[in-house]
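Here is one chain, start to finish.
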Amino acid sequence: MSNINIENEFKFNNNDSIVIGCSTGPDSMALLDMLLKIREKYNLLLVCAHVNHNVRKESYEEKEYIEKYCKDNKVIFETMTIENYGDDNFHNEARNIRYNFFEDVVNKYNAKYLMTAHHGDDLIETVLMRIVRGSNLNGYSGFKKIVDLGTYKLVRPLIGFTKEELVKYDEANKVKYYIDSSNLKDKYTRNRYRKVVLPFLKSEEPNVHKKFLRFSENLNLANEFIEKERDKAIKLVMEDGKVNITKFNELDPFIQKEVLYFLMQIYYKDDLILLNDRHIELLESLIKSNKKNMSVNLPNEVIAVKEYDYFYLKKETEELTSYEIEISDIAELPNHHTIKKVNEVVGNSNNICKLSSDEVQLPLIARTRKIGDKIDVKGLNGSKKVKDIFIDSKIEKGNRDMWPIVVDSLDRVVWIPGLKKSKFDKKNEESYDIILKYD
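Its structure:
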């Protein structure tokens, strides 16, 4: 089919600004040619965004070709080269870099649309891969023709056509293109679907891509309804960015899974291909576990954490795990709190400590906890492990390492700010010359 009319696939408006994510393959070169043919009619601003993936020797030749092509056709050209890959999943990392670059170009030119040349064969491959791998309705639907990303829209105007139809378009319109040799390698999952499964499906039904498109659209409609119910559930179970497990367990099991997928989307965006049903089962086991504190690792350094009655995801980062700060007038703590020396204070809560310099050895130090720390609790005839105080106070495991422990220079625990006072704390009527306040 050489008479593809892109105006039938998307409603263009005068003065639209469009960034085209463009390799030099037959699909994206066809898309670029189609847009050039209607540029004057709609007075379009066209920007070609090209990524050199730097894994094939031909990639530099292709970059030079598309750059000259854009210059000859008066198309703005933006490019980047990926210098290093650090992820084991090459396709995933390349995709992330590519789309981050595209978004930068969109923002640079204040474009309304980012267009890519994904076609019907791509959709079939994506749907089948998600079904085999395991996902939710959103994943099983593959990808949408138009995605609203807030300040711009991602548009795939060629989703209704096959690769073969786009190649025929190129040949009929004398559009030069390059073939990426990596698309022929069987080591990539998508290529195996492309070479083995798609030919069989097309032999059974030549227009199978249209059937998959209808399937995808129906799933998207169903998913839109489900997401409304999921959003209601999220409002019920989320408290300060964490899931209340008791409330979560009251949800319908299907909606529970949707909530978990939603939480993972925050960290994985469109990269849910990294996840499968096994990860959902891991999260469900974590939530149902009788253990009060535990965690599991997810791909890309994401950690799922259960702490008492709450569950949440976080990105694993290298955090400060120990500190030791002398308390002079004010100590700024890594947990964003402070310990101040004050002259007077109202009240007598656990956020206030009154000490006598005759009984404690100065200077006072705020530090992180140590294994075996004990405190002679005020009013208690004996000592108690700091660890047990954290547990009794239901301090989440992730906060314990940063919680300040105030000791004197003999390393005696004199105060756990906000939680417990020691035998060294003085009553109002007793003699003291040091007042500490925890804010």
